[in-house]
Specification:
Strand order of the largest sheet: 1-2-3
Structural class: mainly beta
Number of helices: 1
Number of strands: 13
Low-confidence stretches: none
Length: 112
């Protein structure tokens, strides 16, 4: 019996064949093993309007964002230049004048 590929989403080893697809019983993901895995593994970050963000872009905050440990908040409309995308919950690393290094969620910014 041939070894099946693990799930590309949750990395579970308990995959099974279903017609011409592979399926994962843990997360429910289904995929075609003949398709390129590059398309599934590509890291894409989108802003609040669905625009794709890239490293070095300039974004603008869409709402006031509280900052832990300070009484100030980042005001709506604050322009953030030269962002860096990371694969985590807060997927934008940047420096904001007056606050320093910050991590932002892409759902609270729009591309400038």
């Amino acid at each position: 019996m041939a070894e099946l590929a693990p799930c590309p989403q949750c990395k579970s080893a308990y995959t099974y064949e279903m017609d011409n697809l592979l399926a994962c019983p843990e997360c429910g993901h289904e995929w075609n093993p003949n398709e390129s895995i590059e398309a599934q593994d590509s890291f894409v970050v989108k802003d609040c309007n669905g625009n794709i963000l890239q490293n070095g872009d300039t974004v603008v905050t869409i709402k006031n964002l509280p900052v832990r440990g300070t009484p100030q908040s980042i005001k709506a409309g604050t322009k953030v230049r030269n962002i860096k995308l990371v694969d985590s919950d807060h997927n934008i690393d940047c420096k904001i004048d007056g606050f320093g290094a910050m991590a932002l969620k892409s759902e609270f910014v729009k591309k400038a």
